[in-house]
Amino acid sequence: MSVTVILIEMLVFSALFTTMCFATTGGNHTVQVDNYPPEIQEEYFKTHERIKAEPLSGRAVLKKAIAILVFAAVLVFMAMLAGARNFLQGFLFAFGMMIWIGAFDTFFIDWVLFANMKRFRLEGTEHMDKEYHQKWFHLKGMLFPGIIFALIPAVLVGLVMILLG
Questions:
Q1: What is the per-residue pLDDT across 106-146, written as a single tens digit (0 to 9) for each?
Q2: d(CA 62, CA 100)
């Protein structure tokens, strides 16, 4: 597998992920509301229609299932470009990319952008600086269930590599 291709793909994957975050977060966007700390959700729902935002609500499960399929499709393409040819290569490539994007999301998007850019603030929660700077909330999410979530598209990519092999 090509290390140069993998490094370029890491940058492209980060750019795509960041674009998706900007498109679905902040203001009146409720697509990502379940990814906000509970205190922010509660404040937001005081002035906005409450939607099911619990981690195992049907809405959250559907959103995660769609994300898994999208991630898997993108990662299959990326794995093929990087030179993955079997289950193990596809799995390790995809799992590594998912860990990379989880770390990028936590340490850059959540800790830097989300915490400091007013653009990510939900309407009515703009005053909640302390709640937007909860590093532990985001780190916990990356570690669990984030790592478990990363395994699913990794297995799917590995299986597709078997089918393509």
A1: 999 999 999 999 999 999 999 999 999 999 999 999 999 99
A2: 23
